[in-house]
Amino acid sequence: MAVNPAATVITGIGELTTNTAEFGVMRDAAIVVEGDRVSWIGPAESAPEADHRVDVGGRAVLPGWVDSHTHLVFAGDRTAEFDARMSGIPYSAGGIRTTVEATRNAADETLAANLRRLRAEALRQGTTYLETKTGYGLTVADEKRCATLASDVADEVTFLGAHVVPPDFSADTYLDLVCGPMLDAVADHVRWIDVFCETGAFDAAQSARVLEAGKSRGLGLRVHGNQLALGPGVRLAVDHGAASVDHCTHLTDSDIEALAASTTVATLLPACDLSTRQPLAPARRLLDAGARIALATNANPGSSYTTSMSFCVTTAVLQMGLTIAEAIHAATAGAALSLAHDLSAPGAVGVLRPTATADLHILDAPAAIHLAYRPGVPLTWSVWHRGAQVFGPPVG
Ligand code: NIG
């Protein structure tokens, strides 16, 4: 067999999760990586020869996590608010204004350094693809600089000017700004528009106005909805054909039916539910009804200060009734679907198949179920991003 000098063959894979019907979960598998792509997957005994070989010693290999919901452009933290919450003070959208003030007062370098720190923290825990949002600037200039800084670090950026109404505005006057000059200022730097449709933020009519403005500028649609109580967010997202409705903590049967009959992905944020002392989102009911789900961290300083996708997967299995395969799918392929990706396209993320991006998360465990079996143990052994190992022991 000819030796491919540009390829690395990864062997000794105890269990390989591919998220594809054709390869499924394989034991004693091998993967060949060429450049930034996977070029071959199959049983180890028929792996092609390659110049470079890496033996991962019987460990489990998964696609890198896809974190499809984060708010990483911020300054300051909200330790005191969190501490008070743990003593019984309920979470409300109003706390967002604390971070808005700190973010407006921070220099670009401070925001950029914080973004890089959190992106690096996520990467070394296996997150190889990440979305992040604006939403702590809420002036034209601050939303624009947040969008610009985010686009230097994140794979995809969402405009969340409609996060809350800042002081000194009525909701409608503020939305004139969001849907006009603010949208003009950020549109070239973002792929998505989002709105926080919740009591204390924006109602259904106001949220629809934001989505329609974004759509007319060619942006994809996302909605924060049904986080703190039942509400119109899910219906709004489905009716507008949004790619994702995020939180989905409080859902009626008819919300679940609407999601199941749509292509809108329900993005569940278990770390946020725990950190805000809400019930966990009804993942099992959603899957049983036929809805599509994603899991994401919602990393932000107020409601969910974690970049750990592994923690979200662990929680989904231990507390939300998912199997490990369902939870991994939601945190990888499901999250990519929530970002409207085609999982069979060349360069796909969230799946492992020939032509997919070679983003690998290798666990220091023989099987992925250890993420739930050994909760809290840092199991990330090695991370490959776009065909190169970026975290882990020296290879080859
Ligand atoms: O997704 N829900 C709205 N936005 C964020 C919270 C941000 C904050 O509290 O700072 C979220 O939870």
In words, what does this structure look like?
The protein is an alpha/beta fold and 396 residues long. The protein has two domains: 7-64 and 350-391, Urease, subunit C, domain 1 (Roll), CATH 2.30.40; 65-338, Alpha-Beta Barrel (TIM Barrel). The chain contains 14 helices and 15 strands. It has an eight-stranded parallel β-sheet. Strands 3-2-1-4-13-14-15 form a seven-stranded mixed β-sheet, with no helix packed on it. Helix 8 (253-260) crosses helix 10. The longest helix has 16 residues, at 108-123. The radius of gyration is 21 Å and the shape is globular. The model has no long low-confidence stretch (mean pLDDT 96). The structure holds N-(iminomethyl)-L-glutamic acid (NIG). Residues 71, 95-96, 99, 196, 224, 227, 272, 298, 300, 302-303 line the site of N-(iminomethyl)-L-glutamic acid.
Average pLDDT over all residues: 96
- Could you state the oligomeric state of the chains shown? single chain
The CATH class of the largest domain: Alpha Beta
Radius of gyration: 21 Å
Structural class: alpha/beta
Note poorly predicted spans: none
Tally of domains: 2
Assign a percent range to the helix content: 25-40%
CATH superfamily of the largest domain: Metal-dependent hydrolases
Please work out how many helical segments DSSP would assign.
14
**Could you name the CATH topology of the largest domain?**
TIM Barrel
Strand order of the largest sheet: 5-6-7-8-9-10-11-12
Largest sheet: 8 strands, parallel
**Total strands:** 15
Small molecules bound? N-(iminomethyl)-L-glutamic acid
H/E series: EEEEEHHHEHEHEHEHEHEHHEHHHEHEE
Percent strand equals 25-35%
For the record, give the distance between the C-alpha atoms at the N and C termini, rounded to a whole number.
21 Å
Give the overall shape. globular
CATH architecture of the largest domain: Alpha-Beta Barrel
Main location: cytoplasm
Family: Belongs to the metallo-dependent hydrolases superfamily. HutI family.
Pathway: Amino-acid degradation; L-histidine degradation into L-glutamate; N-formimidoyl-L-glutamate from L-histidine: step 3/3
Binding site for N-formimidoyl-L-glutamate: 136, 300, 302
